């Protein structure tokens, strides 16, 4: 797998700008002086993933079906992009996937297959379908997906630096995309933010290769898991990320409550880690801190539990 080419980035920008409205940029002075929130949580399907999905679906061969494995935001994004671009998509999810995500995928219009007891087994089936003639779209280890995520930079280009962008990190597709945009801007500092329960990308950057790490339970479930061997996100992030940090479960919950109370925003755990990092001064900010709020797809009982946690009031 190789990094996106300049032509792939240009093609991604064309399809994204023709299909999506730029997500809002909101001042958040209570978070930090001169702080901003980039509300990717307001994208269709509720997360930034739709950027990469649009780019990858648009570049897939027209005579092949599209397949992916996901029980979350990536699957929803691929299904949405395929419908908009008149393509056929199959999303494979494990039988243990949450009913909320499964129901959303059922409504999306994709072909939904329930296979296996975990993500790895679902992905294995999806890759078998790809070998039979479908185009497989990885959630992060795909140059067109990364090119799509880089389009967020076009919506930040008007901001005068210096700025420090706080990027939620799981497999690294989004932070790799931000790095592509920031590579020519010396006034932009890029901070990758992981859940303390799952630090796959930071471990890979430190080791110079993908290594397996312990993965614990986390409210930021969309960031949890080990990386694919040879993931191109490691190389891209290694060249441009200025700092990798982690936030705890308590800090993630605090960030979700802050976004709800201060801005009336719903955020899932994965989408709130950047805010958590700013709140708790996990990294060195140069200029204005800008936190990417990347998703809102949190189960209502989970959200109610976080908001109603009396011990945190």
UniProtKB/TrEMBL annotation:
<dbReference type="GO" id="GO:0004794">
    <property type="term" value="F:threonine deaminase activity"/>
</dbReference>
<dbReference type="GO" id="GO:0006565">
    <property type="term" value="P:L-serine catabolic process"/>
</dbReference>
<protein>
    <submittedName>
        <fullName>Threonine dehydratase</fullName>
        <ecNumber>4.3.1.19</ecNumber>
    </submittedName>
</protein>
<dbReference type="InterPro" id="IPR050147">
    <property type="entry name" value="Ser/Thr_Dehydratase"/>
</dbReference>
<dbReference type="GO" id="GO:0003941">
    <property type="term" value="F:L-serine ammonia-lyase activity"/>
</dbReference>
<dbReference type="GO" id="GO:0009097">
    <property type="term" value="P:isoleucine biosynthetic process"/>
</dbReference>
<dbReference type="GO" id="GO:0006567">
    <property type="term" value="P:L-threonine catabolic process"/>
</dbReference>
<dbReference type="Pfam" id="PF00291">
    <property type="entry name" value="PALP"/>
</dbReference>
<keyword id="KW-0663">Pyridoxal phosphate</keyword>
<feature type="domain" description="Tryptophan synthase beta chain-like PALP">
    <location>
        <begin position="22"/>
        <end position="284"/>
    </location>
</feature>
<dbReference type="InterPro" id="IPR036052">
    <property type="entry name" value="TrpB-like_PALP_sf"/>
</dbReference>
<keyword id="KW-0456">Lyase</keyword>
<dbReference type="InterPro" id="IPR001926">
    <property type="entry name" value="TrpB-like_PALP"/>
</dbReference>
